[in-house]
Amino acid sequence: EDGHRGWLRYAPVPQTGSYASFPTSIIALNSTRSSPVYTAGQELQQGINSILGKQLSANSTSEKTFSSIIVGTVDAYAKSYGEIDEAEDLEEDGFYLSTEGRNVVIVGQNERGALYGAFEYLSRLAQGNLDAFSFVDNPHAPIRWVNQWDNMDGSIERGYAGPSIFFRNGLVVDNTTRVAEYAKLLASIRINGIIVNNVNANATLLSAQNLDGLGRLADAMRPYGIQLGISLNFASPQTFGGLSTFDPLDPKVDAWWANVTNQVYAHVPDMAGYLVKANSEGQPGPLTYNRTLADGANMFARAVEPHGGIVMFRAFVYDNHINETNWKNDRANAAVEFFQDLDGKFDENVVVQIKYGPIDFQVREPASPLFSTLRNTSTAIELQITQEYLGQQCHLLYLGPLWKEILEFDMKADDRPSKVKDIISGERFRRPLGGSAGVVNVGTNTTWLGSHLAMSNLYAYGKLAWDPALEPEEVLQDWIRLTFGFDRQVMNTITNMSMQSWPAYENYSGNLGIQTLTDILYAHYGPNPATQDGNGWGQWTRADKFSIGMDRTVSNGTGNAGQYPPAVAQQYENIETTPDNLLLWFHHVNYTHPLKSGKTVIQHFYDAHYEGAKTAQEFVKQWASLKGKVDSERFDHVLFLQTYQAGHALVWRDSINQFYYNLSEIPDAAKRVNNHPYRIEAEDMSLSGYKRYSVNPFHAASGYNAIP
Ligand code: BDP
């Protein structure tokens, strides 16, 4: 159990009588090799053999045996067996699944839908569900993509599971076995597109050799209905193409991109489209030539339009050298400031891809106000499966509940229900396109993400992209059954640990909306609140001796609260109606400010850090109780990570508490902070073979020293 099959383990299930009348053959209608329907047939055959130990014959003709599993598109089904009523309700990528008659019928609106239906059926079998059911399932949104931040040299930006499965030494890899396996996992959670290279893109991806390579990647993923797309570097016409400019309104530049795009499509005829990060964090973009971001996006849109492609244009545009001395400056305002005047100016095949919060994947952020600003532009939400600021897969953090909260948030645009999930689906503002992009960053590690338990996040991402109405806990439990089997204690324990994991991490990292308080300058990992302020990145806390928090009100602060529709703006403007967990996101208050709970801000900090770290200690015991119930390979791996997390949670607790104690000099009512009665400093022991060194940042170690 090295994790490489993820949740598609197809472990044998305890069988009951109802398995006796199981179908004896699989018919994959009109399938040609490497088509998704063919894949569906193969997958059903292998999966059923593995789950039920039944060897079914598989063929592509319509001749039924007494009882068959029939999988195909709605058109293929109608030709062989006649129309089915439910077909009328099918939308793009949707499927109809019925086990009610003698046959199992799996019909997709298209081939991809048929494959999704097959995976759904297998998922139910693997969870021991043999009920008779019949239903139509359609996606909430058409775009359900993942992004990989893989570099051409094989490294992965913010990837925590080894090098890239796509690139090595500047080139696309030759062996695409892992690529196909990844595509299979993605298809099983109904993902339909993937951007394979980093948003900080390298133009050498466009070399002739790499275009061949892209063709190879697309071929490996096409049988799973996953369309390939790529990130582009805006300056490519100049840096790679040898032109003197990359001005998006220069006809030479336009022609250059049209030509490159034609070449890309010659290798990947069904390419999904482009992803573009422009004028952000040092990346080139149209602003260099005083052109708008829409001018830039539309240039790519024109190039892909004849091929049916789309452009995902990122809203993550901000100045990373903002002047902190100006009280009114605020990075959280950037996206709306850059995009508000461009609404309606993007071509129809452009989708603006918006990170869930206004800053950057922090442990707690409000939903980005840009979701309600853009009414005449298609939008998608960007989520992060890779835990960049959230413990980098060394800390357990099940993200389903965080995403759910954002997706269900009501922006109240024009005082009408306007949940984020219905904005990004295109429904609320009647847009033709929309959906989600999840930054995954799997690597060559057999666990894909570097941690077995972190895979629940990838699973939940796909499930919520398809249907945001799902409950994250139920999604988690499906994943647990598929990944670890049916034992009740295993189920309860992993459920408890996962559901407590976001609150725990928030408790021992950054509370009350102050952001995660990791090191900001590079690693984004351990505690380092001192790096938040005093630089141009704009993830400021404005903490001083007496007070803390960003005043984002319209009346006294940066005006950010005013970027939301009036009903939400009023809620955040007013300190009384701002929820405590976003208090310091929107307001600057004294450490002694009382919260709704009655505690002061500083005492809440102290207490929460103790509580969060305590929960992380309990995870170790909870996991250890599963010894013998989980195979030893995964048991040991998870135990190692949980033990590590328990230790690191203490580092977090004490660093953050000490930092704010030093700053405020307000004692902890429970007399724990700055006073550790039970602690024995390693540097006070007699050391043999160990050296002492001073730790930077100093507050990450008690006594400022570590003994490695
Ligand atoms: C930040 C990451 C950086 C990414 C950037 C982005 O630290 O590595 O390039 O986001 O999303 O969170 O473009």
- Mind describing the biggest β-sheet? 8 strands, parallel, barrel
Q: Ends: how far apart? A: 33 Å
User: Helix amount, in percent?
Assistant: 25-40%
What hetero molecules are bound to the protein chains?
beta-D-glucopyranuronic acid
Look up the CATH topology of the domain at 143-484: TIM Barrel
The name of the CATH architecture of the domain at 143-484 is Alpha-Beta Barrel
What's the gyration radius in Å? 26 Å
Strand content: 5-15%
Q: How would you classify the helix and strand content by structural class?
A: alpha/beta
Multimeric status of the protein: single chain
Describe this entry's structure for a reader.
Among the domains are: 121 residues, Chitobiase, domain 2; 342 residues, Glycosidases (TIM Barrel, Alpha-Beta Barrel). It has 19 helices and 20 strands. Helix 13 crosses helix 14. The longest helix has 33 residues. The radius of gyration is 26 Å and the shape is globular. The chain starts with 24 loop residues before the first strand and ends with a strand. The mean pLDDT is 95. Beta-D-glucopyranuronic acid (BDP) binds next to loops.
Give me the secondary-structure topology.
Blueprint: E1 25-28, H1 36-52, E2 57-59, E3 68-73, H2 74-81, E4 95-98, E5 104-108, H3 111-126, E6 134-137, E7 143-147, E8 167-168, E9 171-172, H4 177-188, E10 193-195, H5 208-221, E11 227-232, H6 236-239, H7 251-267, E12 273-276, H8 293-304, E13 310-314, H9 334-339, E14 350-355, H10 370-373, E15 378-384, H11 400-407, H12 420-424, E16 435-439, H13 455-466, H14 472-484, H15 488-508, E17 547-548, H16 566-573, H17 583-586, E18 589-590, H18 601-624, H19 632-664, E19 693-694, E20 705-706
Helix pairs in contact: 1-3, 7-8, 13-14, 14-15, 15-18, 18-19
